[in-house]
Every structure is written in structure tokens, then in C-alpha cells.
Amino acid sequence: MTPTDPGSYEVYLLECADGTLYTGIARDAEARLAVHNSGRGAKYTRSRLPVTLRYRETQPDKGAALRRELEIKKLTRTEKLRLIETQEKRTRHEPRPF
To answer: pLDDT tens for residues 83-98?
Structure first.
């Protein structure tokens, strides 16, 4: 799932090898995941490799993505895990295209 609008951004949550969670924004979360796992991502994730993409949501522009990133960063760990779980449940129950 990549953003369809060229101006859109994704807010994403990574789970690091040590179990911690990292929140960021990117135009393409999958591509950014590869950068993190190559050791060229955020300083925080470099010493906690490998990282796994656990959550992402599309925002219409960079400003909205930055605001949402801040909202997510303010959540407790439990709330972030609930956000991840909610998305995973929704994804499992989505009808598959034929």
C-alpha cells in the first residue's frame, strides 16, 4: 500500500529488534523501511536492527503527516500497540479482490 496521491505521506510505526517502537513519516513507508534496515535510517533505529513495519496510514500532505506523527508519539506504548492491532484486524477482514 503506497500513497496514491503524489503529495501524500505515510505515518508509520516500526517495531525494533529490542521490542521498542519508532514512529516516522515518509512518502513511501516500504522504501523507508529498507533504508532503516540498511543502517542508513534514523539514528534511533541503527542500533536496534532489524526493524519491522507494524503500522502505517496515509495523510494528504506533509503537514498533516507531521501532526499525526506527533499525536502518535504522544500515545502510550499500550495505545500504540492497540492502534497496530486494530489495523491488523481490519486488514485480515478486508475482502480480497478477485
So the answer is: 999 998 887 776 666 5
For residues 56 and 14, give the distance between their C-alpha atoms in angstroms, rounded to a whole number. Answer: 9
How many helices (DSSP H) and strands (DSSP E) are in the chain?
Answer: 4, 3
DSSP alpha helix (H) spans, 1-98: 29-35, 43-46, 62-74, 77-93
DSSP code for 97 = P
Peptide bond preceding 95 in cis form (omega within 30 of 0)? no
The residue ranges of every structural domain in the chain are 9-89
CATH number of 9-89: 3.40.1440.10
Question: pLDDT per residue over 11-28, tens digit each?
Answer: 999 999 999 999 999 999
**Contact yes or no for 83/55 (Cβ under 8 A):** yes
